[in-house]
């Protein structure tokens, strides 16, 4: 395509996205600084966004000295993630005193590679190099989920990389690679397995089962790497996941209301607002409520996939599955919002290819995405963190939008 057909300006909807994202980020950064300087608000009694950096990584420093031994499961700390993530932690801890630097380098290289590849796609999609580079750079600069992931030392970026690679492979009809990426990511944190639904919708059943096989093989190998006694490793992993369930899913922690944007957190907040604290702090009742919630969303999700999602355009499928993977698990913290940049990238290409003004559904999607990837953690009211609840509602609205309004028949590029 010759240069004369390249638009000199970004579509209006992308300017709207950047403006909302940047303004919200700068505003809440200012509020955060003022609150901390004057010891005001939630920061006076313990902050959701704590002063301690890389906590998700450094909490396990001592434990990973015993990696690949039975003593790994006999430490004061409990590793609360599936075994494949333990392998990723181990690779970082092999750098010894430079583990944090290795982790940060891996995350930033992942983000930089994704940004450069996407900028190249924008240029190939008729956008001039300077607007493409500035738009991508601005998006990365104000990408709150990425910076939160870096600050916490969380490995969500690894899942993002796998899902991005899997989605690119799917768009290029390399279904085997896509299935492997979705399967490996899924066995790391369960919820990415939902992306195998893209293969079912495309009737790529062999690839779908290959993805499940990749997940099973990854789990088996990682269990052995954590501890040569696979049975002990399996029990240890289940114990860690059980501890996570008890400490974060079943338990009610008001301080995390500003960071947890799952629909289940909205249920907890509603019970708290109605004064049902006895119920919230009753482990047996909360366990029953959690099981009921998981059963309901699993059934509702399956029905929606069968009657609606699999018949939607690909961009709507990716958007709805991504939002479902973020909001439906019983707990979902800020770094999971990083995955919204996958459907966002597809919608950006749609907006650029549509030379006329975008229709209202596409513009509404960009507005919702801009708010969701911005920091709202300073939204507190009388000790109640409201950001998580607000983002849960916005995710639900975005999900309904993806189900109802076709955003594009195809995605080129």
Q: Provide a count of the helices.
A: 18
Profile the largest sheet: 2 strands, antiparallel
* Share in β-strands: under 5%
Helix content: 55-70%
Distance between the termini: 12 Å
Quick one: how many beta strands? Answer: 2
Shape: globular
Pick out the low-confidence regions.
Answer: 43-48
Output the radius of gyration. 21 Å
Number of domains: 1
Order of helices and strands: HHHHHHHHHHHHHHHHHEEH
Q: What's the oligomerization state?
A: single chain
**Widest beta sheet: strand line-up:** 1-2
Averaged pLDDT: 88
Which class do the helix and strand fractions yield?
mainly alpha
Notes on the structure:
The protein is mostly helical. It has one domain (11-404). Helices cover 64% and strands 1% of the residues. It is built from 18 helices and 2 strands. The chain has helices at 12-37, 55-58, 83-93, 99-124, 129-141, 144-152, 156-171, 175-189, 197-201, 205-226, 230-250, 263-273, 277-280, 283-307, 314-327, 341-353, 360-372, 387-404, and strands at 380-381, 384-385. Strands 1-2 form a two-stranded antiparallel sheet. α10 (205-226) crosses α11 and α15 runs antiparallel to α16. The longest helix has 26 residues, at 12-37.
């Amino acid at each position: 395509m010759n240069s004369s057909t390249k638009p000199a300006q970004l579509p209006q909807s992308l300017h709207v996205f950047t403006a909302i994202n940047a303004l919200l980020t700068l505003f809440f950064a200012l509020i955060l600084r003022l609150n901390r300087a004057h010891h005001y608000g939630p920061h006076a009694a313990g902050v959701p966004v704590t002063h301690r950096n890389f906590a998700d990584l450094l909490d396990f420093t001592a434990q990973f000295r015993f990696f690949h031994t039975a003593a790994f499961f006999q430490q004061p700390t409990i590793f609360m993630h599936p075994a494949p993530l333990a392998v990723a932690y181990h690779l970082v801890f092999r750098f010894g005193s430079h583990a944090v630097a290795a982790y940060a380098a891996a995350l930033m290289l992942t983000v930089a590679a994704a940004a450069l590849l996407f900028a190249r796609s924008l240029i190939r999609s008729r956008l001039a190099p300077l607007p493409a580079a500035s738009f991508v750079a601005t998006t990365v600069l104000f990408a709150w989920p990425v910076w939160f992931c870096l600050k916490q030392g969380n490995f969500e970026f690894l899942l993002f990389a796998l899902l991005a690679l899997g989605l690119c492979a799917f768009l290029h009809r390399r279904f085997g690679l896509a299935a492997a990426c979705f399967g490996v990511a899924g066995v790391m944190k369960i919820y990415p397995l939902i992306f195998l639904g893209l293969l079912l919708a495309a009737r790529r059943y062999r690839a779908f089962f290959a993805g499940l096989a990749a997940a099973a093989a990854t789990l088996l190998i990682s269990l052995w790497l954590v501890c040569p006694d696979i049975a002990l490793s399996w029990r240890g992993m289940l114990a860690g996941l059980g501890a996570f369930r008890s400490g974060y899913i079943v338990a009610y922690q008001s301080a995390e209301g500003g960071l947890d944007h799952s629909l289940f957190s909205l249920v907890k907040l509603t019970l708290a607002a109605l004064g049902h604290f006895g119920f919230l702090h009753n482990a047996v009742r909360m366990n029953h409520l959690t099981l009921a919630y998981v059963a309901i969303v699993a059934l509702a999700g399956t029905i929606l996939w069968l009657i609606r999602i699999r018949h939607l355009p690909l961009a709507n499928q990716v958007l709805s599955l991504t939002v479902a993977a973020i909001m439906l698990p019983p707990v979902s913290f800020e770094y999971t919002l990083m995955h919204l940049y996958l459907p966002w990238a597809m919608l950006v290409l749609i907006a650029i290819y549509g030379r006329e003004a975008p229709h209202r559904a596409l513009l509404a999607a960009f507005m919702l995405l801009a708010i969701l990837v911005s920091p709202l953690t300073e939204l507190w009211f009388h000790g109640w963190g409201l950001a998580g609840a607000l983002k849960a509602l916005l995710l639900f609205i975005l999900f309904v939008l993806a189900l109802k309004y076709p955003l594009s028949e195809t995605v080129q590029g």
